[in-house]
């Protein structure tokens, strides 16, 4: 539930018929007044027209809202897919009285299928500005695909409010951004400051999570600040934004397709933060680590194997590495029977912490993921995404 | 069944008590006469003492046999693990009248557990040279861990014979070599030629397979040629060795943990072979592609997504890419209903071919893998490997 709603943002959700169940799948959020924005997108070579259009809009610095279509990514859909994306954005822009370039557009869902433009156009015919509401909970719901829970967070920063929504449970190892996440705030922050803070926070949160290594074609992270609450302390704003983003990331990892547990891999003692991230990602993405966590198996040998996969990091040597789960060390000093029992207990919890010290220098990074379950396989062999 | 046994190799298999079921898990193969050898090993930063010792032996060019312990990798076992590996190899070398450096040693199985040296020593006490037999089928069985089938192949090359054995079903994305594979031949080939041919073949076979992206700490591929059958045509030998290695690789992929289907990804039209391999590996390792194949879902959008993950390959553009399954094209010209039915039929078979043309230049590569199933998850959440 959103408790702190930023001033001046209007929210509209509706069903555009992107699938048969009548659920809301069209989401539009627009600031009534000008805003500064920044956004980051997937680096996929198969990025869709939404990402192409939004990239241009952000380069323009004038974006103050976004439209999302859920359950169809509009990716690998050729010329017609681009025309449809342009039309959707243009019609929304006209309805709310903005230029095309002032709106980001995002789409997420099945790849290679055209939008059902008849029902999409019917939904766009209904748009009336200003929108009635500012219900970000509804927005968080209507951007969902296979998510089992809406991901939404709201926090205060001085007099200003910050709300963030996110979606994504599979095809998820964001690089630059996540599947879809949007933040709106009424704080007054100059664009260059907002840009710096946003990139720094995304690097440590959405770019630090992986469900299944499968980077999406549609990843988009954006923030809009319309300044209606006046200036804020930028350092405090960065802390609040980091807090909000991290909570969303934990929710995303915990809600990973089929997942039963959140995995956090804390890497320290690395040559630098990049190496720490590389090792962390390798461990959190290892199918054998993920299945061991699923089975509550204290199989630290698989963690060692996964660290070993960083084959170009010649300064990683087994003699210097330390591995632990929760507050228990497992390598090189193996746990005794009593510690082993507590280890299994930790692994049976809903959050598993894997700690790795590389013993090289003081670089560190934390990554987030989830266990690999039969549910993931079932969901993805039966469902066309 | 081995039909063509190379002359002059002796085989010994026995139970060394590495697990409780009494199955053979100690394998020793030695040429009666000097041989030339080459070998390639894992690049894992957590490589175990077996790999360290074998690397030294190969650098010495005099290896003419190998010893394998299955069901315990002897990895991340510290000083004692190294001492145990040295002792095992030394006692085998003494029993067969060779120097330590003339034997490779390999171990595969659980990580982080010491060898049960009492039962290992008891098995070594029984060694009597020359060994009675030359049963490579028995050797292929006794190097297995979670393999459901022994992997063995024998072929003729002129008067010479070539036999190859391999094991590995999980923790398997070899880089330089596979879990374990050994070839023995009585062909007479100079060491530099053998080295060139072996590296070329391994690059296109064992280094082209991935079950689960989890590169093992114990990968070893080796070949021994004792020359007893006289000289062979080296080009023909390379073709025969490639044929043998490829058949073993297909067996490995098909027998991947929990796998029900072999996946072959043929990439063509790439900038160079390296790019083709990178794209192929990205596709064959994608959990979403693997689960789609498992569900016989003609979800080519996931193949497009996986290609898109090669984010640094800026010359890959969706407009030039072509994707097909078997002999059917699916992108950019989408299949009609009739083709879609044949597509599902292809996907329901036991071998799924994914064809990707990048439309850039004429680089090509084929990689091998398998589907991701609930069986993989079950096996690896319940079993300590």
UniProtKB/TrEMBL annotation, chains A, B:
The keyword Cytoplasm applies. The active site is at residue 178. Pathway: Amino-acid biosynthesis; L-arginine biosynthesis; N(2)-acetyl-L-ornithine from L-glutamate: step 1/4; Amino-acid biosynthesis; L-arginine biosynthesis; L-ornithine and N-acetyl-L-glutamate from L-glutamate and N(2)-acetyl-L-ornithine (cyclic): step 1/1. It comes from the Bacteria. Substrate binds at residues 145, 167, 178, 257, 380, 385. Gene3D superfamilies: ArgJ beta chain, C-terminal domain, L-amino peptidase D-ALA esterase/amidase. The record marks 108-109 as: Involved in the stabilization of negative charge on the oxyanion by the formation of the oxyanion hole. Keywords: Acyltransferase, Amino-acid biosynthesis, Arginine biosynthesis, Autocatalytic cleavage, Cytoplasm, Multifunctional enzyme, Transferase. Its EC number is 2.3.1.35, 2.3.1.1. SUPFAM superfamilies: DmpA/ArgJ-like. GO terms for molecular function: L-glutamate N-acetyltransferase activity, acting on acetyl-L-ornithine as donor. Its main location: cytoplasm. It catalyses: N(2)-acetyl-L-ornithine + L-glutamate = N-acetyl-L-glutamate + L-ornithine; L-glutamate + acetyl-CoA = N-acetyl-L-glutamate + CoA + H(+). It is found in: Cytoplasm. The record marks 177-178 as: Cleavage. Catalyzes two activities which are involved in the cyclic version of arginine biosynthesis: the synthesis of N-acetylglutamate from glutamate and acetyl-CoA as the acetyl donor, and of ornithine by transacetylation between N(2)-acetylornithine and glutamate. Belongs to the ArgJ family. Heterotetramer of two alpha and two beta chains. This is Arginine biosynthesis bifunctional protein ArgJ. It comes from Kibdelosporangium philippinense.
């Amino acid at each position: 539930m959103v408790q702190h709603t930023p001033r001046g943002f209007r929210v509209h959700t509706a069903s555009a018929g992107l699938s048969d169940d009548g659920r809301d799948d069209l989401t539009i959020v627009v600031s009534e007044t000008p805003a500064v924005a920044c956004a980051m997108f997937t680096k996929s070579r198969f990025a869709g027209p939404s990402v192409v259009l939004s990239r241009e809009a952000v380069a323009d610095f004038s974006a103050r809202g976004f439209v999302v279509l859920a359950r169809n990514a509009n990716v690998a859909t050729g010329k017609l897919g681009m025309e449809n994306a342009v039309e959707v954005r243009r019609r929304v822009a006209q309805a709310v009285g903005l230029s095309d370039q002032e709106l980001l557009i995002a789409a997420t869902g099945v790849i290679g299928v055209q939008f059902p433009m008849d029902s999409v156009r019917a939904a766009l015919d209904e748009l009336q500005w200003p929108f009635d509401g500012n219900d970000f909970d509804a927005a968080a719901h209507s951007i969902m695909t296979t998510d089992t829970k809406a991901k939404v967070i709201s926090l205060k920063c001085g007099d200003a409010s910050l709300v963030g929504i996110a979606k994504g449970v599979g095809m998820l190892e964001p690089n630059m951004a996540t599947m879809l996440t949007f933040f709106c705030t009424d704080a007054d922050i100059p664009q260059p400051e907002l840009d710096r803070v946003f990139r720094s926070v995304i690097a440590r949160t959405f770019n630090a999570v992986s469900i299944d290594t499968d980077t999406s074609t549609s990843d988009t992270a954006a923030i809009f600040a319309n300044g209606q609450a006046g200036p804020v302390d930028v350092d405090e704003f960065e802390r609040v934004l980091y807090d909000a983003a991290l909570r969303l990331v934990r929710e995303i990892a915990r809600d990973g397709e089929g997942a039963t547990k959140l995995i956090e891999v804390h890497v320290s003692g690395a040559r630098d933060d990049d190496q720490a991230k590389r090792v962390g990602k390798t461990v959190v993405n290892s199918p054998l680590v993920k299945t061991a966590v699923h089975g509550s198996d204290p199989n630290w040998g698989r963690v060692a194997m996964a660290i070993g996969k960083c084959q170009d990091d010649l300064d990683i040597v087994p003699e210097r590495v330390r591995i632990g789960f929760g507050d228990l060390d497992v390598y090189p000093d193996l746990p005794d029977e009593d510690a082993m029992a507590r280890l299994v207990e930790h692994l049976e919890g809903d959050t598993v912490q894997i700690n790795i010290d590389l013993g090289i220098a003081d670089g560190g990074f934390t990554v987030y993921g989830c266990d690999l379950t039969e549910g993931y396989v079932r969901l993805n062999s039966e469902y066309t995404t």
